[in-house]
Design goal:
The complex is a heterodimer of chains A (about 220) and B (about 250).
Chain A: H1 2-19, H2 26-37, H3 54-84, H4 99-102, H5 104-122, H6 137-144, H7 148-175, H8 182-211
Chain B: E1 3-9, E2 18-24, H1 33-46, E3 69-70, E4 73-74, E5 99-103, E6 112-114, E7 117-118, H2 121-128, H3 150-160, H4 167-171, H5 178-189, H6 198-211, H7 222-226, H8 234-246
Parallel strand pairs in B: 1-5
Antiparallel strand pairs in B: 1-2, 3-4, 3-5, 6-7
Helix pairs in contact in B: 2-6, 3-5, 5-6, 5-8, 6-8
The chains are: A mainly alpha (about 220), B alpha+beta (about 250).
Chain lengths: ~220, ~250
């Protein structure tokens, strides 16, 4: 749970930095997209160690494995908790838990549906609403985020993602043994807040810039 | 004070159980919560009804025997910044005329035996799995024969204050006994006497914890919030560190 979760956070940071290339130029963004897929003249990542165009598939396979392991761990924990916890208190009061901590499981399911939609939209290009399926990557992004409700939907989805990270980041480090004192607990929770807010701003600044016409 | 109590009544483990409302009159604000229950039981006895069964022993907050969920918090700490056991909770914490919900610990591995009494022998079996040191006891060693740093001694003693009451399990949304297990692990991991069996201990105790049917820890923190002995959440990280380290040790393999 912890290791796969942190791997996914690392992926999000990479993804975010890639998105921000839109602020350099549409060409820079397209070049990045093609470079990831190994479609450039230079042969792409790790060429010639691996054949051109293979990296993206190895990476996708790795991501799939990480996500499936993360889901497997979550389902195992959920099932054990369900068996152990009869949840029959008449009066219930919460003292310490945060909203993020409480919604990790159902929130995770919401995230997953968002991920599936996101992949269908920008990777498979099956659910594009701006008719840009054959356009360059940056035109597709511009087209999709010119739709106001798309930006709103992504803003809501990213709230769910960042809340998941808010608890998940701290929880992962605690599971790995980094919570050594009350001070460490505060530091880890502080870091979790910072990374969640950073990711939210980093991911939402580009769609908002497209919608408001700053990027076109 | 006059108090309205809504108490969980359950004749035996097979009974379905339900909340029953009782009026308790002339409660002194200086009474402990258990003394208030005694008052109720005297009244019930006089009326010829079955008294409410609840666990208790020392009534000094050090034995870990008592423990009920009061108004939704284990041991009834509520908004108070002071952690407490049920026996050390006083009726002055409640308003006159208050309605108080009293329920037993709820967790799969803690089946209700009667009313507010649950079977906590799962904890005993976790201790039996490794919460001890296998050393020959002889005469007491000389003082300072085995030096322990102040930091480790403090952590060890802090963790050793766990009285095994089970409030952590009662409060945990996963019904995990990780704080209890971690307190025992940390206690012995900090002291020189605990070192020889340190890594077999953590494996066996965690395995027994899971075998008893407790849920797993998702670092929510409800356990530490209700712990009458303020066992800190970082003991769970200590358990995890030892468990991860044990994967690279020959112990128990």
């Amino acid at each position: 749970m912890a290791i796969t979760g942190l791997a996914l956070v690392a992926f999000l940071l990479m993804h975010m930095s890639g998105n921000l290339k839109m602020f350099i130029s549409g060409e820079a963004f397209d070049h990045y997209a093609h470079w990831l897929k190994g479609e450039g003249d230079e042969g792409g990542i790790l060429y010639p160690l691996i054949p051109q165009g293979w990296f993206i598939w190895i990476f996708r396979l790795g991501m799939m494995a990480v996500i499936l392991l993360h889901i497997y761990s979550a389902v195992t924990l959920w099932r054990r908790a369900k068996i152990a916890n009869p949840d029959t208190y008449v009066a219930k009061r919460r003292l310490a838990q945060t909203y993020s901590a409480r919604t990790m499981r159902w929130g995770g399911i919401i995230l997953l549906t968002g991920v599936i939609f996101h992949l269908l939209q920008f990777t498979v290009r099956a659910t594009l609403f701006s008719g840009t399926a054959d356009a360059a990557p940056h035109e597709m992004v511009l087209g999709e985020f010119s739709i106001w409700w798309m930006v709103v939907a992504y803003a809501i989805w990213m709230v769910a993602v960042c809340m998941h990270i808010r608890h998940g980041f701290w929880s992962a480090f605690t599971t790995l043994g980094a919570n050594t004192s009350l001070k460490a607990q505060r530091v880890l929770n502080g870091c979790a807040w910072v990374i969640a807010i950073l990711l939210y701003i980093g991911f939402m600044i580009m769609p908002v810039a497209v919608l408001t016409g700053v990027l076109n | 004070m006059n108090i309205t109590l809504r108490v969980w009544r359950q004749a035996n483990a097979q009974d379905e159980g339900r909340m029953v409302t009782y009026q308790v009159a002339d409660v002194s604000p200086d009474m402990s919560f258990l003394e208030m229950l005694d008052l109720l039981n005297e009244d019930l006895t006089v009326k010829g009804e079955e008294p409410v069964a609840f666990d208790h022993d020392c009534r000094e907050g050090i034995c870990g025997m008592c423990g009920v969920v009061i108004n939704g918090t284990a041991h009834g700490r509520g908004d108070s910044p002071v952690p407490t056991t049920t026996c050390q909770l006083h009726m002055r914490s409640f308003a006159d005329g208050a309605t108080i919900d009293v329920e037993p610990w709820r967790a799969g591995p803690f089946p209700v035996l009667k009313d507010l009494v649950v079977d906590r022998s799962a904890f005993d079996r976790i201790i039996q799995a490794g919460g001890f040191i296998s050393a020959n006891t002889g005469s007491a060693p000389d003082a300072h024969a085995a030096p322990v740093s102040k930091l480790k001694a403090d952590r060890g003693f802090d963790a050793a204050t766990c009285i095994g009451c089970g409030a952590c399990v009662a409060a945990c949304p996963n019904s995990s006994a990780m704080l209890f297990t971690a307190a025992k692990i940390t206690h012995l991991a900090m002291l020189p006497q605990g070192q020889p069996e340190r890594y077999t201990r953590v494996k066996s105790m965690v395995a027994q914890h899971d075998a008893e049917g407790f849920g797993n820890c998702t670092n929510i923190g409800e356990c530490a919030a209700v712990c009458p002995k303020e066992i800190p959440l970082d003991t769970i990280s200590q358990l995890n560190r030892d468990l991860i380290a044990s994967l690279f040790k020959k112990d128990g393999k």
